[in-house]
């Protein structure tokens, strides 16, 4: 089974996203900030990362830059998930190595559609 | 919903658009008519039906009938099919027609995502064989409001995130201050929109090389399906193809069309499928 790391400082968002992602037949890991997510990736690189932008300790963008520099860090498909949904922010996320971008709020249809877009489902 | 009220509205849907709404789906009627009921100040569906029966207002009745039809659609719905239309069906049609012109009709195209998806594909992934061709895209829907929304080309937060990749979104759309996303003027100008009831003659729309009538027939009663499909068949140029949604077929509906040999879900004029296959 594929693994998906959900990185968001909101426990509610993680809970909602985890339920949807499990329904898509993923094993789910959760992290509350970028630094914790980085530690988890070093232990076991996930197949997918659903990544929030604004988080304490290490934000999503810094996490993504670090991830892509890690050994094996080019492999996970990263779907940004943020309320920062203007073209400038979206372009910045893509430049940093995001594969897709979800504009919050989202629902199961959107998440499945975006995962399908990058070949995760 | 009271049985009498359901029967009136289901009957209206059947007569006006061929929709067969079973009693088990009466919630669809309530959901689809709720905006009109709110706007008109009706406290219940029974009040709405009472108004329909007591006031002979064909415009209002037509609005109700159009609202009862499903509008569910999204960008790149069944992407493989759209991709094959662009990569395979259209180039073959262009080669066969020798006019340098192709006409595509999205019948029952709702808010335009299917036709716009084709326009986006033709812009981003134009096959060499289609370069220089004049490709006309028409999308029709029974509902005037929906047709107008499609023409404007503005889509909401949820609509642009169903089926559309983020790269295509930021390449072809602009975010408005309202939060909506507007398709580029260039792509909008490549699709025409017209209000059209598929139960009525489509002679005025002209003849087409490809007709997409996807996920439309499945909600219709059998006699309506026959009428719609035979009306579409009359608008197909020789060698043209009709594409239905996955799971939809015309077996037992009409003998005017038969399955295309080389395209699953494609239907061509009866007696031509073998000829097409051997010509290819």
From TrEMBL, chain A:
Pfam family, one: Response_reg
Swiss-Prot/TrEMBL GO biological process terms: phosphorelay signal transduction system
Modified residues (4-aspartylphosphate): 52
Keyword Phosphoprotein: yes
Keywords associated with the record: Phosphoprotein
Domain Response regulatory: 3-119
UniProt keyword Kinase present: no
Lineage: superkingdom: Bacteria
Family annotation (PANTHER family): TWO-COMPONENT RESPONSE REGULATOR, TWO-COMPONENT RESPONSE REGULATOR ARR22
Protein name, entry field: Chemotaxis protein CheY
Automatic annotation (TrEMBL), chain B:
Reaction equations catalysed: L-glutamyl-[protein] + S-adenosyl-L-methionine = [protein]-L-glutamate 5-O-methyl ester + S-adenosyl-L-homocysteine
Gene Ontology molecular function: protein-glutamate O-methyltransferase activity
InterPro entries with a match to the protein in the record: Bact_Chemotaxis_MeTrfase, CheR_C, CheR_MeTrfase, CheR_N_sf, SAM-dependent_MTases_sf
Source organism superkingdom: Bacteria
A biological process term (GO) from this entry: methylation
Pfam family for this entry, one: CheR
SMART domains to which the protein is assigned, alphabetical: MeTrc
Domain CheR-type methyltransferase: 1-264
Segments crossing the lipid bilayer: none
UniProt enzyme class: transferase
SUPFAM superfamilies: Chemotaxis receptor methyltransferase CheR, N-terminal domain, S-adenosyl-L-methionine-dependent methyltransferases
PANTHER family given in the database record: CHEMOTAXIS PROTEIN METHYLTRANSFERASE, CHEMOTAXIS PROTEIN METHYLTRANSFERASE 1
Protein name: protein-glutamate O-methyltransferase
Native species: Hyphomonas beringensis
């Amino acid at each position: 089974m594929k693994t998906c790391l959900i990185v968001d400082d909101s426990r509610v968002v993680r809970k909602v996203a985890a339920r949807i992602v499990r329904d898509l037949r993923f094993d789910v890991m959760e992290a509350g900030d970028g630094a914790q997510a980085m530690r988890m990736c070093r232990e076991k690189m996930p197949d997918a990362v659903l990544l929030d932008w604004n988080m304490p300790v290490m934000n999503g963008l810094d996490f993504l830059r670090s991830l892509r520099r890690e050994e094996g860090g080019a492999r996970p498909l990263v779907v940004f998930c943020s309320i920062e949904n203007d073209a400038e922010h979206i372009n910045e996320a893509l430049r940093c190595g995001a594969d897709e971008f979800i504009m919050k709020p989202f629902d199961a249809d959107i998440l499945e559609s975006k995962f399908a877009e990058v070949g995760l489902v | 919903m009271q049985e009498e009220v359901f029967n009136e509205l289901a009957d209206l849907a059947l007569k006006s658009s061929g929709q067969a709404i079973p009693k088990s789906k009466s919630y669809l009627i309530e959901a689809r008519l709720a905006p009109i009921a709110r706007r008109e100040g009706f406290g219940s569906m029974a009040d709405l039906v009472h108004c329909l029966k007591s006031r002979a207002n064909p415009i209002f009745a037509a609005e109700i009938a159009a609202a009862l039809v499903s509008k569910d659609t999204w960008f790149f719905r069944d992407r493989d099919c759209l991709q094959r239309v662009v990569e395979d069906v259209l180039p073959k049609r262009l080669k066969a027609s020798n006019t340098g012109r192709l006409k595509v009709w999205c019948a029952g195209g709702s808010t335009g995502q299917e036709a716009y998806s084709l326009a986006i594909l033709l812009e981003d992934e134009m096959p060499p064989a289609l370069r220089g061709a004049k490709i006309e895209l028409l999308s029709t829907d029974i509902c005037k409001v929906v047709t107008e929304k499609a023409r404007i080309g503005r889509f909401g937060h949820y609509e642009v995130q169903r089926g559309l990749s983020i790269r295509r979104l930021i390449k072809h759309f602009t975010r408005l201050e309202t939060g909506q996303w507007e398709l580029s003027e260039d792509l909008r100008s490549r699709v025409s929109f017209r209000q059209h009831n598929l139960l009525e003659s489509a002679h005025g729309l002209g003849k087409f090389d490809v007709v997409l009538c996807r996920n439309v027939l499945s909600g219709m009663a059998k006699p309506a399906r026959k009428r719609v499909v035979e009306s579409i068949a009359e608008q197909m140029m020789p060698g043209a193809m009709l594409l239905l949604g996955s799971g939809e077929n015309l077996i037992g509906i009409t003998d005017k069309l038969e399955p295309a040999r080389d395209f699953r879900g494609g239907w061509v004029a009866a007696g031509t499928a073998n000829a097409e296959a051997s010509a290819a």
